[in-house]
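Bug report

Summary: structure tokens for Glycosyltransferase differ between web form and batch submission.
Environment: batch mode, default settings.
Steps: 1) Submit the sequence below via batch. 2) Compare with the web form result.

Sequence submitted:
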Amino acid sequence: MNMNKTSIVILTYNKLEFTIDCIESIREYTTQGTYEIIVVDNASTDGSREWLSEQMDIITIFNDENYGFPKGCNQGIEVATGENILLLNNDVIVTTNWLDNLLLALNSSAEVGAVGAISNECTYYQNISVNYTNIEEMQEFAKKINIHNPSEWEQRIKLVGFCMLIKRGVINEIGILDEIFSPGNFEDDDYSFRIMQAGYRLLLCKDTFVHHHGHATFSVDSRSFYNILEQNALKFKEKWNFDSSDSANIRFDVVQLVDTSPLEPIKVLEVGCGCGGTLLEIKNRYKDADLYGIELNGNSAAIASLFANVSSSNVEHQLEYPENFFDYIILPDILEHLIDPWSVLKNLKKHLKNKGKLITSIPNVMHYSVLRDTLQGRWKYTEAGLLERTHLRFFTIYEIQEMFQDAGFVDLSYKGNIIPIPEEDEEFILKLGNLGGSSFEQQYRVYQWLVKAEKNDPIYTIGNSVKGVDLTSLQEMDFTEIVVLIKTNNLSSSEIITVVEEYAQEKQATYNLLAISLYNERMFDHIIPLLSQSLSIDSSHMETLYNLGHILYEANEKELALEYLQQIAVKDKATQDLINEIMSLY
């Protein structure tokens, strides 16, 4: 094995013109002596075998029949002598720094098992928009992208195998490609998940661009391609017990609604997280994000559990997360599947921090296609879409708004996802607009609503609960006004505790803020019961212990003050100074 060499394994089946362009680009844009090219030809009949036989710098394997992509790659891997293996489609044209950049990412950590490039033509979100019109322009385009930049590396749960660089040690550990996926498709999904299962990370290198013609082998017969795609999707599902497309989906539209500063630490829960693709995209953007998920499919949950805290809980049951815990809770296409989405929203709100946000996507039953079919007497359930068989609830924007407001959310914002509308359907939409009013026309076009709503509960929000005292107008943290009402209405500490326990969201914070406000008024008789009640919630609560110790010291209860202060596990300077002051009196 050559420790400094990369083995580039290329499969060919006809399309000689693509193969020549691919090989020549490797020769031109890759440092000599750092690679070997291995071409496995699957019984080409267009002169590929003859041309390859003439190339002195290529290791060739000629098959007498088309064994497909996985087996052909495995043949190439078996004869490879490099430290790293690069699976490359023959319809790829490589670019400046392409291999150097991929190797820098692959060798950046022992935890990285494989890396991939971006392109003009690729599935699973590895493609970018391009503006070139020929190969010369493409190479100039690539030069501007292919500048080593680790901030452009993203962790992914799967990589597409058109240009995939893998450590030899990883292949030795997990084995070669699974040949049940011959002639091709989903073998790279399978391999990606196997790499992750072995404890390695996958990186998409957005600092490495290569050109990809796309589906060169199958393009002659698109029907055959899609039949194979469908068959291998079923094979994958039988092997892994989840659907790769659905479970690995990344909801970029949902992630865009997370509006915290990228430097802020956040806690995010995704309900129905699948394999965690969306959560991982959040982590790529928010490096200090703590990821949590709920996923009923144990097999896809096992993948997400490799980088997130995933539970198999049912969101319609009691959840074990603390209250006021998450900055964001996201539910992509979940609410319509629930028996009681109204209660779920109310329960989830408890687990959001104040000012926390809930983000969801909900199919729009007012979409013109549903109304058109309904007017024609049809309400046909389908395997996917607006009337998916598993949907239990159906919503318009009006019902969505009512549901969120009833759950106590505020600051609702909406964005409509619109799919392409055939020209012949535009006339029907105009007729609907004439029938229902032009204000509804946009609702007929929206396929799915994206909704973001905020939890904005004042820490202390009560109504006519104690002796007719109306505190509904108080703003968050406005404890000065609360103290005035306590004094004027002569409320006892037990009455205050009753109200806090019933209405306060952050009980211990409320007790301590009230204690500080009451201390300024020298109302010691109220303070000690309130702080004692706070300690009954959490006996190690540092702020409560300090405030109680300070108050007791002021009340000349030095021994008792010292007892509480010494219970603080991590003592800051103010606490230690107060302890020292009390100790000096003995």
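Above is the batch result. After comparison, the two runs are identical; trailing whitespace caused the diff. The chain has three domains: 2-240, 252-454, 479-583. The CA atoms of residues 40 and 61 lie 5 Å apart.
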